[in-house]
Amino acid sequence: MASFTFYYTGIRVRDLDRSVRFYTEVLGMDLAFRMKIRRQRGEVAVLKSPRGKQKLELNWYEPGSKYATPYATGQGLDHLAFRTGSLSKAKAEFRKKGVKVVDRYMGPKGGEWFYIADPDGIWIEINGAK
């Protein structure tokens, strides 16, 4: 069986600059990086607490993007992320269990990840170890 490690949490935000300021100035997190995500028509900022291992990914999507759903208070969870050593092994195991891949991506420098959904529709990113 593939092994999984909880990796980070991604939340959807309405104003990326405002959210980055809040998490850095109010909670003391450091901005690790920020980048455009053209395919999803959005932008991502990744933050980390100075003494923590988990990351927080802030996801903003421009109006008209299929990911820019109407925002309601408390519904900002974008996805949870887990890391595994073998994406192909994980995909095979999910297939056997009847779990479907809902989306997949190739990232910069050959990184690959895909998403499954939990029973309530929350997306779970499965990210290959680097």
Can you describe this structure?
The chain is α+β, with helices and mostly antiparallel strands and 130 residues long. The chain is built from two helices and eight strands; from the N terminus they run E-H-E-E-E-E-H-E-E-E. It has an eight-stranded mixed beta sheet. A hairpin with a 4-residue loop joins strand 2 and strand 3 (42-48). The protein starts with a strand and ends with a strand.
Please provide the count of β strands: 8
Radius of gyration: 15 Å
Distance between the termini: 19 Å
Counting helices, strands and paired strands, the structural category is alpha+beta
Strand order of the largest sheet: 2-3-4-1-5-8-7-6
Task: Please trace the helix and strand order, writing H or E for each element.
Answer: EHEEEEHEEE
Please count the helical segments. Answer: 2
Mean pLDDT: 85
Helix content: 10-25%
| Molecular shape | globular
Detail the poorly predicted runs.
Answer: none
Beta-strand content: 35-45%
Largest sheet: 8 strands, mixed
Question: Descriptors for this entry?
Answer:
single chain, 130 residues, alpha+beta, 8-stranded mixed β-sheet, 2 helices, 8 strands, 16% helix, globular
Short summary of the structure?
This protein has helices at residues 16-26, 87-96; strands spanning 4-12, 30-37, 42-48, 55-61, 77-84, 103-106, 112-117, 123-128. With 130 residues, it is α+β, with helices and mostly antiparallel strands.
